[in-house]
## 1
Amino acid sequence: MTSVSRRALVTGSSGQIGAAICRRLAEGGHFVYAQAHRGIDAARALVAEIIADGGQAQALAFDITDAAAAGAALETVLADGPIQILVNNAGIHDDAAFPGMNAQQWHRVIDVSVNGFFNVTQPLMLPMIRTRWGRIVSISSVAALKGNRGQVNYAAAKGALNSATRALALEVATRGITVNAVAPGIIATDRTEDMFDDETIARLVPMKRVGRPEEVAQLVAFLVSDEAGYVTAQVISINGGMI
């Protein structure tokens, strides 16, 4: 893929998928802003690792659900120039069967994925538009496409993200900006190791294995490349054939 150095922002970089995306973008020559909130120590360690490997990165600490805090942090970043690559990776689970789900569980999950998308993406749009080049990728989920028991809140949040992706893509299609979503299935993280045993994986996934964070990162790296300039308004699954 063509390697042109650009400034990239990845939210939720303290998680394993976010970290893999940061590493892959840094390997591609981009300057990576690794955002995190409660996991800022992990983001700083990731940045140190990227720099030690010859890449360029900086940790950003702010809560994406806090519009004022996000706006202030992004204003500082934009003072040095536009962000042309944005990966909306941050998301949380708070699973419960819907009849027993409380309002806080519903609103927290929606807040991170949907309001967080707005709070981070909207301030970056006009500077990106002025450059006539941009890539926005949001990390969705198989749960938004096929549903999942105990995850009505998460499916709703990621489903809204998919719809926002398609609509925004249409708005900026003539501005050299693509907007896509990536919908992972079961990916090897600390969380999935506790949720799925080998028998369950073999039953749910035709490829009979979990995906790796690096595989998600490779797909994101393609979508933010020059070669993917005609790919927009898509929700692309990476799930070993689950659907």
## 2
Amino acid sequence: MRVFVTGATGFIGTAVVRELIDVGHQVRGLARSDAAAKSLVAAGADVHRGSLEDLESLRSGAAAADAVIHTAFIHDFSNYGPAAEADRRAIDTLGGALAGSDRPLIVTSGALLVQRQGALATEEDAPAPNFPRKSEEAALALAARGVRASVVRLPPSVHGRGDHGFVPRLIGIAAEKGVSAYVGEGLNRWPAVHRHDAAHLYRLVLEKATAGASYHGVADEGVPTREIAEAIGRELRVPLVSKSREEAADHFGWIAPFFGVDGPASSALTQERLGWRPVQPGLIADLNAEHYFEHTANAVPLRG
């Protein structure tokens, strides 16, 4: 199958590209720079020049493919509204190119974005209506128009070597401030998945998904945030502290609202329907590996 992948040189996208190529799919990845194009060629993928904002490049890439996997997102949390709108336009453009062809479109969303905060989220829960990111709504609207669209919901921590998301930001804050903090009692939970398990799920969704369905790329249903802070503090050898919700905004900055969410999620239905089984290390086991702290080992004075 010829698969067009957006975000193909990102942390998740590179794992998806490798997974697809390893089982014989032909991959064409979206590349906005010479460095990205070189990376794709090295991985064995074809190059499609363009960007998330270049809608014509998205349209032509999708039109020439048998399927599309959309992992790209502009991760600018200081301008989240415009980033979410760019994502919605990209999804609508990709879907328009696939309309009437029965070719799959897989869109990425978040497992924290479901409606029932604090309850164990399932694949059948609706996304939160007031959240700016509208990836899922855009995909499901396309499905209603006859596009074979489905959704992969990822947790806030997609972890593994090369991670540059939420957890490395928490490590950086702890290194900078000399304490590893959590919010309140730290009982709120984050779901998590290893990037290679997530990549395997994308392939299964590509090959087996039902149009209009949502799937959860969740291995750890809910890791208490205090345990995350403890793992970071242990590796950096800094004290563990609690921050009130009022203090959290100042201490964590833009990540505070995310780190304070209680958002456990289940992948039971995904595993049952697709036969997906996560096999990689969990989040805490991964945090105990040295690679998460390679760039901070000399940043914090060791205590004790």
## 3
Amino acid sequence: MRILVTGAAGFIGFHLARRLIADGHEVAGVDGVTRYYDPALKEARLAQLRPHNGFAFDQVMLEDMAGLTAAFERAAPEAIVHLAAQAGVRYSLENPRAYVDANLVGTFNVLELAKAAKVQHLLLASTSSVYGASEKRPFEELDRADYPLTLYAASKKAGELMSHGYSHLWNLPTTAFRFFTVYGPWGRPDMSPWRFAEAIAAGRPIEVYGDDIWRDFTYIDDLVEAIVRLIPLAPVKGAPVGPMDSLSPVGPWRVVNIGRGEPVRLDDLIAAIETSLGKTAERHQLPMQAGDVPLTFAGAELLWALTNYRPATPLAKGVAAFCEWLVQYQGAASHRQ
């Protein structure tokens, strides 16, 4: 297929694009290469993709409708995986405008172009953060998700809702997937696995927010496998896979959790990093930050029903792979400097 991936220079987009190319698809990547974190990391990811004949790339911001339109016309996609967004819960407290521009305006632009291209399937990334203050565990797709705790979460829920409207009005087959704390090689420097590993390796204290924090960590290869399996499974109106299906009653649209369904304590993440690096962390304990939640927990039954697959990489194995990559990447970066 011809598949357009927005956010192709990002953590998840890079891994997905690389997998799709390996599977024989033509991939058109779009990314703004913003300075939210070090653009050198994004360029290093792109350097892994550019040599492939099956990959083309346009650097363009989601808010730039003219530039985005030109990129879409060159790609002529049959499917779109919309991963580009302004990410980060804490950063949304500092720079909320970035979330309006990328996640609201940008997603609207992608929806307009998906409609014009009449793609076979639009897939777009959402987040477990949409469950917000929900006290039900595990989080399941049919649960209400009406109490977001940050503008980031609200902007991602808005993207789901906008896509549902387009799906209904224009018969646009759409799957929104909610990610649960994705980690692994080529990850994001603003996320806890990178921040902790970098500090522990350097002998610096780590800042730990909250006393009893649990996260449903999802290894990147597992996430990509789930997305790849979902791409050919465009929703069909009136054809649910079971009572757990979030399929809309008025359009070819559904939302799917992608997570292991096995939350672990943040302490277990730190212990796994300590084991992988052979060093002990010095902790600086701080109160839980505004917008954070104490626990995320994916209900993964719908993903299993659709794909016969659920993420399964153990935390220790995934953390070891990430730490090995980080040491190599930072060593290579130091050598380049």
